[in-house]
Amino acid sequence: MIYDIIRFNFDGSKRTMFRGLSLEEAQAHCQDPQTSSATCTATSGKRTKAIVLRHNRNPWFHGYVGGNP
To answer: For the chain, how many structural domains are there in total?
Structure first.
């Protein structure tokens, strides 16, 4: 089975970030502290103050779901 990485926002929205990963790849990705707004310290992707504020107001995390075999 293959897996997709989804960014889940606490406002209920979600977005597919990556497709076609193995279970091991998906688990490794989701265990990375950079894949949750609560633990993310990377500045990449946070190009402006507005983006940082949006991330703080709308917490998110990456999870994986089973895709098509």
So the answer is: 1
